[in-house]
């Protein structure tokens, strides 16, 4: 089947098999390996992508929100979406937002702290405009 979409601002039109997962399309056909391939079922959350926005990176750097980094791209996509709909989330709201994602390393405390950091420093960090 033919698919057309915009990825990172670039118009893309490709012929794909109907069963192709988005993560494989992004990684294998477009060479965008920043999207991590985790479980093939969308249960671990490593492959989360977010369109029309930018990730929240500085909070993860400031608060050591990663160790191996495998879950980090998906965590940042989820964090960005959370902060767009709720700019001042509580710890519980953050934990609920990332509950669909598995981190094997951090115990989540530093991830939650990173997202809280991003929420409190949102105006000081250039995160781009939202449509
Ligand atoms: S930092 Fe290793 S899986 Fe989250």
How would you briefly describe this protein structure?
By secondary structure, this protein is α+β, with helices and mostly antiparallel strands. Helix content is 35%, strand content 9%.
What does this structure look like?
By secondary structure, the protein is of the alpha+beta class. Helices cover 35% and strands 9% of the residues. Strands 1-2 form a two-stranded antiparallel sheet. Helix 3 (72-85) packs across helix 5 (109-120). The longest helix has 14 residues, at 72-85. The two termini are 29 Å apart. The structure holds FE2/S2 (inorganic) cluster.
Strand order in the largest sheet: 1-2
Continuous helix count: 5
Poorly predicted ranges: 124-131
- In angstroms, what is the radius of gyration? 15 Å
| Helical proportion, percent range | 25-40%
Structural class: alpha+beta
Order of helices and strands: EEHHHHH
Please summarize the sheet with the most strands.
Answer: 2 strands, antiparallel
Query: What do the pLDDT scores average to?
Result: 85
What coarse outline follows from CA principal-axis ratios? Answer: elongated
Strand count: 2
Distance between the termini: 29 Å
List of distinct ligands in this structure: FE2/S2 (inorganic) cluster
Q: Determine the strand fraction and express it as a percent band.
A: 5-15%
